[in-house]
Structure prediction request, 200 residues.
Amino acid sequence: MSEPDHADSPGTAFPRLPPRQVVTAKFPVMSKDATPALNAAHWALVLKHGVRPLKRWDSASFDALPRGRMVCDIHCVTRWSKLDTAWEGVMLDDLLADAGIAAPTGFLLAHSADGYVTNLAVEDVLDGRAMIATHYDGQPLAPAHGGPARLLVPHLYFWKSAKWLTGLQFTVREEAGFWELRCYHRRGDPWKEQRFAADD
Prediction:
């Protein structure tokens, strides 16, 4: 991932800013590959336990779920932060409630349409901590930023907020995702500067 242009604002000027982060007014676009061409009307999300499907939502059934809103700061591992970002979508708690289940394991993989995968602890996505976002700043989420739907886990580095989300998979044990297999940290807490595997 390359370093984007950003405002020259040191982290010490913002008590809410994690160590060594810099505030940007822009919204940098960062992905492992090019933005995939997706048809929002044909988008679907599958929830699985291992290989076993638990529930599938097409775009219409997903849009019928309760809607939530989050205003939060986001932090990229490349050291930019964007403050007071406004998102709308479905909270992970409401998604599981609609599926009629409690989390069956303590670990989760988020799958994207471009083949990207990232791992998460279930405790990091429940109790109002994460959403499947479909709107940003009052508008449908742009494809470059993960539209039609992306995961939003704002208290972790932004690589954990998988773009172009198509699946959530509960796993018995913690399994590494794309960047985690390439020496990134398993959790990615910006306040602890958990950028790389050795950063504990």
